[in-house]
Amino acid sequence: MSNIHHIKQHTSEEFPIVIIGCGFGGIGMGIKLREAGIHSFTIFERADEVGGTWRDNTYPGCACDVPSYVYSFSFEPNPNWSNIFGQQQEIQQYLLDCVAKHQLRSHIRFNTAVVKAEFNDEEGIWNLTTESGEIHQARVVITAVGGLTDPALPDITGINDFKGEMFHTARWNNDYDYGNKRVAVIGTGCSAVQVIPSIQPDVAHLDVFQRTPAWIMPRHDFTISQKFKSFLAKYPKVQSAIRGVLYWGSESLAPFLILDSKWLSKPFEALAYRNLTKHVEDPELRQKLTPHFQFGCKRMIVSDDYYPALTQENVALITSPIERITEDGIVTKDGVHHALDCIVLATGFDLSLAASPFEIQGRDQRSLNDEWSVDGAYAYKGVSIAGYPNWFSIMGPNTGPGHTSVLIYTEAQINYIMGGIQTLKTQNLKYVDVRQDVMDEYNRNIQKRMKHTVWTGGSCVSWYLNADGSNHALYPGFATEYCHGIKQFKLNEYETTLYPQVQDLPATSAAG
Ligand code: NAP
Predict the structure, then answer these.
(1) Edge-first strand listing for the sheet containing 329-332
(2) How far is the CA of 104 from the centre of ligand 1 (A)?
(3) Which of 152, 198, 260, 392 could lock 350 by a disulfide, CB 3.0 to 4.6 Å apart?
(4) Does 187 contact ligand 1 (Cβ within 6 A)?
(5) Domain range holding 247?
(6) 72-123: pLDDT as tens digits
(7) Does one domain contain both 175 and 280?
(8) Is the pTM higher than 0.90?
(9) Do 232 and 326 share a domain, yes or no?
């Protein structure tokens, strides 16, 4: 392989670390490494800018559905959120500001997709191959590749025949002028519910293709006044108190949104149904919009403008299944041809929780892809995988929340990984590899608890579930419980090997 080149030589003291992905996870990890005085890390980012899902999702109306005071780093509070629920542009700007403030940019290699990782047992080194064939070496690899990144494109007959404009919500064509056009939105999940009211006033006609109606709660968003922003800037403790209130508020909702209990779901279903009846008077439309699964089974959606948008004259809610896409529109099973200029695919993401994000070869040439394809993705606390030493994941298997901010989990993972790195360094260990029995026991417990969750028992199909119905996406408990469990890196849960005496190791192109 002639195009392989090793970058410069470092000594083992420099401890090359590679982070893969520069969204919230990668940025948070980079900040914490630098804070600890560790500068020998490189962040590989396949795109040309940071931000991950917040860089990619530029569709009209894109905003967070978790209040921004808690959907942001606790160590980087932003007093300037425009609304309770921050909008995409300001979340992306927040991430850009974090990168600038913590001088991360020089650590980032943009347009660099890692396609293969192989562990060298003898040296305790990961060899990472990029798309262009370069090989980089690292003592520790941290994947922060996110889950909701790759669009899931629907398998609809004729999808490639359409001659009009077609794009996925996560790949919105901002050059396309949808004004006065006949537009279709396929899907009625979180993304669709934000897009639909945002484009409805401008389009000539909007066809909304709904397969499964969702439970939608009021959002109660409001604009934050300049006075209050200044107050928060002056008194950051108030902001952290607000974060605490929001955190404990969402924790109190956890049983209602997690457990498979009709009694616990009922009050939420009643509130969501009241939200529906408040906005939709037409009994036929109401009926079409009434969900038939247990509340919480799919992610709860919050919106104040989705139902009102559906009642507008230029909008049709179509529930007859899509049969095929033609050159100029969509034909539904009832035989109707819907003529269109543009089709928006709001069809969600390909989570791939039965496959590794790329080829990963651990100890004894074991392949993560092969292992995960059997029973889905597993890790210890979502972070460490037996047989893959010094490899850590951020937002790994079974670490997603159904009721609160994912960043609570992310921060806990970053802290835990820092513990692992410090242990490796201070104890001069070649590697730490989580014990198979420890990982298996952890996951047996997770999957046992999963049986009692609304995600598996609530009569719905969602992106949380693998094809076999198992859930490797979410954590079936309180965030507090998860964070407590991952607070300390415990070396007795890992197999370890001492590092051979100091030798020169080829390293990454780590800046700094
Ligand atoms: P999603 O929740 O997976 O929704 C996809 C929608 O497309 C569903 O309504 C689905 O119908 C429909 N669909 C998929 N394939 C279809 C097909 N072949 N024919 C017809 N309909 C089809 O995706 P999403 O809305 O992008 O949201 C994904 C996740 O991203 C959310 O759960 C949330 O975690 C996150 N998100 C967050 C925000 C935010 O914070 N603001 C915004 C957007 C997304 P079925 O229900 O019948 O499968």
Answers:
(1) 322-325, 329-332, 337-339
(2) 32
(3) 152
(4) yes
(5) 165-223+228-345
(6) 999 999 999 999 999 999 999 999 999 999 999 999 999 999 999 999 999 9
(7) yes
(8) yes
(9) yes
